[in-house]
Amino acid sequence: MRGGDTTGLRAYNERLIIHALLRAGALSKAEIARETGLSGQAASVIVNRLLAEGLLIKRDKVRGQVGQPSTPIAPNPKGAFSLGVKIGRRSLEAILVNLLGEVIASAQENYDAPLPEETVRLAIAQATGLLASLDAPSRKRVVGLGIAMPSELESWAPELDLAPGTLDAWRDIDVAAALQEATGLPASLHNDATAACAAEVILGDAVTRRSALYLYLGTFIGGGIVIDGKLYRGEQFNAGAIGSMPTAHQSPTGAPQQLIHTASIIQLQQAFAEEGIDAGEALLRGDDVPGAARIFDVWAPQAAEEMARAVISAMSVIDFETIVVDGLLPPAWRARITGHLAEAVQDFNRLGLSPAEIVSGSVGPMARVLGAAMLPLQARFSPNTDLLVRQTIARQSNAEAASSLAN
User: Which label site among 26, 44, 176, 351 has the fewest CB atoms less than 10 Å from its CB?
Assistant: First the structure.
């Protein structure tokens, strides 16, 4: 095998092993070989290299079983780090996570509107501040920075009751380039709801089947798509733009309204404000805020009915097995609106459609920023090829290991 191919193969098998350990938590070398399809020799060589690089660690030997004691190998939480930044319509968040996806530092700023230059300055300050919290060796282990923000943020001024042109500068700002220059890290930009879907796939437990439609109830509703167990972004990186689906309601101009106008948290926030209830407190504490449950229980069935129309439309195109509902709502409210959605879906004529399980998401309000932080780690450590390619590469690696021993 050519040198370049060998290097690529080695990197792939390293990802394969790290990915297996991140899923399992810890495995012996023999278990790693079985899980990845590598030979025992090939797995051992790679594991030893990753131990030396500090990406993996050894745990205490397991004794008392049949045969020789085994030494579990686990991902080193301090082996790699990643930054996530979420630029939202009402708030800015930044987090620093370790290799296991654990949040080790965070920052947040609320605002009335995402004014372009000011928001980018805040994002830079948050990201660089979190980096400064690391010691020098850890700083070198930060693999990248993910950014989650709504698509075409400059177009949302009317929905946020802002004067025309207030957000126009977003058209000319390269957010990823600005943060990359400020931090020195490779930066990637993602739709905020897509990033939230990524968090559910990587760290959550709601996506248990190979296909899912993911709904994120943020200030404005958005979505994501999972196909073949993987996040699907689409050819133009805008798959799952569920908020743009037309509804049966008409705007003042007579054009169909979009789902964002009828099933977004902003309508719930406005209802709270009209009753003199602090929306932030209500979305944090739910039923514990006096009067909040009454307003939510009026809004939720109406929003669910609108969501159901979009869900049925999406299921008519892709045979989704699961519908996941997550977002800014507290867990009890997420469960209630998920129940309303399940009931509303039953009211539609579903002839010709396969049934889908409708479940609450497990990550919650942090999904967007957490997904932004996890995507650079996934890009660095997760294999992205299908099973056939994985098995082929494993066989090649086994052959290489045998050849090396023979020589």
Answer: 351
Supply 264's token pair.
């977004």
**Spacing of C-alpha 94 from chain mean position:** 14
Residue 85 · residue 94 · CB < 8 Å:
yes
Rounded distance, CA 176 to CA 293, Å?
40
188 assigned to some structural domain: yes
Listing from the earlier edge strand, what are the strands of the sheet with 357-360? 230-232, 221-227, 212-217, 322-327, 357-360
What sign has the CA pseudo-torsion 221, 226, 230, 235? negative
Q: Per residue in 133-191, pLDDT tens?
A: 999 999 999 999 999 999 888 988 888 889 999 999 999 999 999 999 999 999 999 99
CB 28 within 8 A of CB 39: no
219 plus 299 within the same structural domain: yes
End-to-end CA distance of the chain: 15
User: Which helix H or strand E contains 323, and what residues bound it?
Assistant: strand 322-327
pLDDT at 396 over 60: no
Q: Give dist(CA 320, CA 208) in Å, integer.
A: 12
Q: Say whether both 172 and 277 belong to one domain.
A: no
In degrees, rounded to 5, the angle at the alpha carbon of residue 307 between the alpha carbons of residues 233 and 92 is: 55
pLDDT of residue 70: 83
Average pLDDT, the chain: 90
Do 66 and 90 sit in the same domain of this protein?
no
The range of the structural domain enclosing residue 124 comes to: 80-195+369-381
pLDDT of residue 395: 42
> What is the C-alpha to C-alpha distance for residues 110 and 98, in angstroms, rounded to an integer?
25
At position 149, the amino acid (one-letter code) is M
Report whether 70 contacts 27 (CB < 8 A).
Answer: no
Q: Find out whether 166 and 112 touch, Cβ atoms under 8 Å.
A: no
Residue identified by tokens 């700023």 is 109
On whether both 116 and 262 belong to a single domain, the answer is no
Mean pLDDT, rounded, for 89-117 = 95
Residue 46: CATH number of its domain: 1.10.10.10
* CA distances in angstroms from 180 to 177, 198, 207, 261, 338, listed in the order given: 5, 22, 32, 34, 38
CB 361 within 8 Å of CB 206 = yes
